[in-house]
Amino acid sequence: MRFISKLSLACSVAFISGGVAMAADTVTLQLAHDVDLEHSGQKVSEFVAKEVAELSGGKMKINIYPSGQMGSTRELMEILPDRGVDMTYISAGGLESFADIYSVLTLPYIFKDKDHYNAVVWGPIGKEIMESTRDKGYVAIGAYAAGSRSFYARDPITAYEDLQGKKLRVPPSPMLVAITEAVGALPTPIAFAESYTAIQQGVVDGAENNIPSFVSTRHFEVAKYFLEDEHSSFPDYLVVSTQTLDALTEEQRGWLLQAAKDAQGYQRELWEQMETENRQTAIEAGVTFTPVDKAPFQAAVKPIVDDFKASHPQYEDLMQRIQDAAN
């Protein structure tokens, strides 16, 4: 985190506090994340930065720090409330460690199909969840498609039984750790940027993610077997410090919120295209995609859903409304 300290010191005259830099009637925000340059999170960041500059006529600028330059997902979320950075791009799985309401979205097989997912994520329920963390020092201002997550490995996996004892990289998501354990594998949290090397060197046997991330990380080069169990489907988010939002003028907030909203439509179309193209890229590189009977997976993870309901009664109504949204 020394980089952040040096940055703050060098810009101490321009900074009001934390990340927002002001000079006369201009403002510069810092957006940092730990995904790679080909990830849709970087594409969203670039879209938002460009639109903010256009809407503001150059009076508002967003500097992007990708690929973990300013820290891991956890490190960025820890400094976000105090404006050590203004914004970050993060999955619901990453957010659940900081706000357990996001665990509801990461529950295995909670969505019946894509229409159900879309109705929740971009409907009133999704907006309610995004706004719910204001008192924690941050809010999500945009929700973005992230497909379905499945397991993949270096050695052949074609059925539920093949996962038993496999050491698999998972992100620092309590729910994804629990799901991986439930299906008989050994979850191993490793930083996103380090996961390729971990698979390549056999530190882990494989990992789990969606198809575009599987390709953008180039994991398809070292893990040739993709088991399409689709155990989780949850979105990514653009998250901003509430202190940053409060420091902006109403007009500046309007530019930022409009850009984040417009990026949602752009990214959903991009995601559909990426899923199709990336699957073909992986197939041409020799990856075997195997559709599976999901029944054994659903049976294995059912206790996770039951335990969550029992230990989080405050979300009973929310979970019921999510279920009702499928009708």
TrEMBL record:
Keywords: Receptor, Signal. Pfam families: DctP. CDD domains: PBP2_TRAP_SBP_like_3. GO terms for biological process: transmembrane transport. InterPro entries: DctP_fam, TRAP_DctP, TRAP_DctP_sf. GO terms for molecular function: carbohydrate binding. It comes from the Bacteria. Residues 1-23 form the signal peptide. GO terms for cellular component: outer membrane-bounded periplasmic space. This is Tripartite ATP-independent transporter DctP family solute receptor. It comes from Martelella radicis. The lineage of its organism: Bacteria, Pseudomonadati, Pseudomonadota, Alphaproteobacteria, Hyphomicrobiales.
